[in-house]
């Protein structure tokens, strides 16, 4: 997962307006976060089953939401976002061959092109997940 975390850190720099991010995988591989704030905000959404990242996972469509939409559609998430000073979120589903793998989420203040860049970032994460799945595992 170290390689995935390194890839995520690089992708946060590439997405306009992103300050932190998370890649959450559905197949038991867990999640990687750029920092404690990203972990807390992402974990809370999935624990409650509600929020923009959960919506992206459920719908299979990207979600780009500013603070006003966050307050309207996900009030619980909005409280946590305010605590961590998050002004927006872009979440893209990670899908390979029509199979959901998880979500890639970025938090910050976003420019309109952030969603398209995040989609491309999702492809990079899928590629990294593929490599990690193929890597031999050490058995203790």
UniProtKB/TrEMBL annotation:
Cited InterPro entries: GAF, GAF-like_dom_sf
Q: Where is the GAF domain?
A: 6-112
Q: Which domain of life is it from?
A: Bacteria
Q: Where are its TM segments located? A: none
Gene3D superfamilies the UniProt entry points to: 3.30.450.40
Q: Pfam families, alphabetically?
A: GAF_2 (PF13185)
Name under which the protein is recorded? GAF domain-containing protein
This chain's source organism reads Saccharopolyspora cebuensis
Classification from the root reads:
Bacteria, Bacillati, Actinomycetota, Actinomycetes, Pseudonocardiales
């Amino acid at each position: 997962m170290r390689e995935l975390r390194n890839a995520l850190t690089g992708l946060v720099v590439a997405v306009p307006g992103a300050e932190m991010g998370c890649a959450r995988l559905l197949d038991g591989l867990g999640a990687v976060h750029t920092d404690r704030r990203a972990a807390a905000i992402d974990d809370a959404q999935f624990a409650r089953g509600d929020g923009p990242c959960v919506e992206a996972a459920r719908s299979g469509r990207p979600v780009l939401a500013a603070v006003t939409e966050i307050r309207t559609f996900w009030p619980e998430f909005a409280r946590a976002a305010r605590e961590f000073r998050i002004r927006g979120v872009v979440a893209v589903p990670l899908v390979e061959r029509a199979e959901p793998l998880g979500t890639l989420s970025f938090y910050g203040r976003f420019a309109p092109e952030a969603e398209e860049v995040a989609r491309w970032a999702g492809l990079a994460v899928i590629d990294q997940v593929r490599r990690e799945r193929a890597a031999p595992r050490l058995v203790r």
